[in-house]
Recover the amino acids of this structure.
């Protein structure tokens, strides 16, 4: 495999001149450029990106830190980030933090030493301290859902409160008269906003009681357990709004085990719009986030920031939409309710 020294020797120039040409970091006259280009083609030389990064502090590599890659929302998001990054000539390194602050810190410490060009944080454990450190090092970052409290950051998120209200209104419109909510971990801004949206929609309703709220963990088994607890307290609920699709899928499973017909006896709505909702039986109604658009936007924002083309850090809130399917559309209101 040819080296940069081989190219310099064949082109009759110094290694530093080859470096300036490759990194576009200084003047190289036209004749020298032609000689270098000819040498590169003849030797089939491929510049080592890491070596170029050591000289120019740029490797065309970005890091995407996710809290849970097993959640299909983040898988779909990662695909969009990678697709857009590739069009700009960037490679994406994926880190799965498992919502553990220490694990995320280890990723940051390791990757910053490898001259990573920038970070996308889709985790909720990204701290102000870490943000300050990256800012001092001149490493750009952008965030999904929330930024660090004391540092400016570009943030992309969807309209979670509005989405929760849209879900409740849909359940009321089809005839539900006693709706429960399985909410996610309250340290997550998405879960908190969806709970607030639900409460603002129902707190004046005569049937509402705080015991219609049940904690979940944004996972399928959490949705199963929460649904079982809700049914013990309120066997007459006729609607469930789950704070994400995985918990809604868990609710479907719990209801099926008890012989309750989802769609006709009880309506279930999730939140996120992951692809799995289309293949469930019954198909799951959900509030769909524009997942691909969110990933594409956050990727573009980071690349703009890396290349000095982002004028200011802003928060971008994207619209959500109701995807009404069998888990609610087949609902038959009870006459005595």
């Amino acid at each position: 495999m040819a080296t940069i020294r081989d190219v310099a020797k064949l082109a009759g120039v110094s290694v530093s001149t080859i470096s300036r040409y490759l990194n576009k970091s200084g003047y190289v006259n036209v004749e020298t450029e032609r000689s270098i280009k000819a040498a590169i083609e003849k030797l089939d030389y491929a510049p080592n990106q890491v070596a170029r990064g050591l000289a120019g502090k740029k490797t065309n590599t970005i890091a995407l830190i996710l809290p849970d890659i097993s959640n299909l929302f983040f898988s779909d998001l990662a695909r969009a980030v990678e697709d857009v990054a590739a069009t700009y000539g960037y490679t994406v390194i994926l880190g799965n933090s498992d919502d553990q602050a220490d694990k995320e810190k280890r990723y940051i410490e390791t990757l910053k030493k490898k001259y990573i060009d920038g970070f996308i944080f889709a985790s909720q454990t990204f701290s102000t301290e870490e943000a300050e450190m990256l800012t001092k090092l001149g490493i750009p970052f952008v965030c999904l859902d929330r930024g660090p409290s004391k540092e400016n950051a570009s943030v992309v998120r969807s309209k979670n409160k509005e989405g929760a209200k849209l879900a409740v209104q849909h359940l009321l419109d089809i005839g539900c008269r006693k709706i429960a909510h399985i909410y996610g971990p309250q340290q997550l801004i998405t879960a908190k906003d969806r709970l607030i949206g639900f409460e603002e929609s129902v707190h004046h309703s005569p049937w509402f009681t705080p015991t219609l709220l049940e904690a979940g963990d944004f996972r399928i088994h959490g949705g199963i357990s929460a649904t079982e607890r809700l049914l013990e307290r309120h066997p007459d609920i006729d609607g469930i709004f789950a704070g994400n699709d995985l918990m809604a899928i868990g609710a479907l499973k719990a209801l099926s085990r008890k012989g309750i017909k989802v769609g006709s006896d009880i309506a279930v709505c999730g939140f996120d719009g992951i692809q799995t909702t289309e293949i469930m039986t019954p198909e799951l109604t959900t509030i769909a986030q524009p997942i691909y658009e969110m990933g594409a936007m956050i990727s573009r924002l980071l690349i703009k920031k890396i290349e000095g083309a982002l004028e200011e850090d802003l928060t971008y809130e994207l619209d959500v939409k109701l995807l009404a399917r069998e888990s609610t559309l087949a609902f038959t209101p009870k006459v005595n309710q």
Summary: The chain is about 45% helix and 15% strand. The two ends are 77 Å apart (CA to CA). The CA atoms of residues 63 and 93 lie 5 Å apart.
